[in-house]
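User: Quick one: structure for sequence A, then sequence B.

Assistant: Sequence A:
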Amino acid sequence: SGGTGNVINQTLINNSNQVGTVTYTVTPYYANCQGQPKTVVVTVYPKPTVTPSVTEEFICSGNATNISLSSNIANVTYSWTVIPNGVSGATPGTGNQISQNLIAVGVVGTVEYIVTPTVNGCIGDPVSIMVTVTPTPEIFTNSNPPAICSEDFTGISLSASIPGTTYEWTVVQNGVEGAF
């Protein structure tokens, strides 16, 4: 908008994904004398955004994240910080892909990636991405169960490194019936 005074202090907003401009034509006055107008052009870059492929991801311990970063503005760079909670392997970084092997240190851990987009010296709003990392249980059995007689119970005890683990098994029978 037009105005008066010795400072033009306006908040300019570019909601497009292209570079925009604002042209001010300033005319100086002193008493009743008008000076030569001067044109001032302000280039306004759009504020970059980041669009992650996911905002929440669930992986098993030892697997890699698979998070792609994009924007509706060209040439955006991305950087991220990490807030790990019971997870190792998460590191700050840059790029358009977050692919890090994460290991749960406890029962279930999380990593918050805080991604910040930048373009033309303009910093966009950070976006938070949460990754939940579930540990992979290690199974324990009574080692080398003894041979049994026909019609006896197997008695194979199962336990795991993580409380609450459930179990599934498959069976291959060779000259025996009753296994399922």
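Sequence B:
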Amino acid sequence: ELNVRSFLQQRGKVNRGIRETILKEPYRFLAYNNGISATAEEIQTERTPDGDLVIQSIKGLQVVNGGQTVASINRAKRIDKCGHLEKLAVQTKISVVNTDLLEELVPKISRYSNTQNTVNEADFASNDPFHISIEKLSNSIWAPGEQTRWFYERARGQYEVARNRVA
């Protein structure tokens, strides 16, 4: 109940992409998916003979970010009858939160994990060979008057980073 959205179905391209990865490329799920952020009131762990730490029980588990991921996996099992879910690896961050702080902390965890800087569609083109070539040219060709060089901002924010590095 602490997640900010219900399952958005398969209408959007993000959820369709999650479903396609689950069904067709489950071995790439960890690389493509942002995973799940959850809170719990209590976690009991145990060491295996190999030395790995495993969860024995969780009390008060709440998904606060990653509900679309959880719902997409559930849909793949129930509706798509996906038989290879054991091939999925999903990164999960679980924050143990004292019961007295749940109402204060969980909304903040949800807000902060859901409001990081957005990557725009244009940002993905920044590593295109064309833009890399233009950037190399801008670093090697003098501007008129030969007092300075051109600056080509291939990636958003690159100019400010370069300015701050010089300052």
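Confidence is low (pLDDT under 50) at residues 1-8. The radius of gyration is 22 Å.

User: Thanks, that's what I needed.
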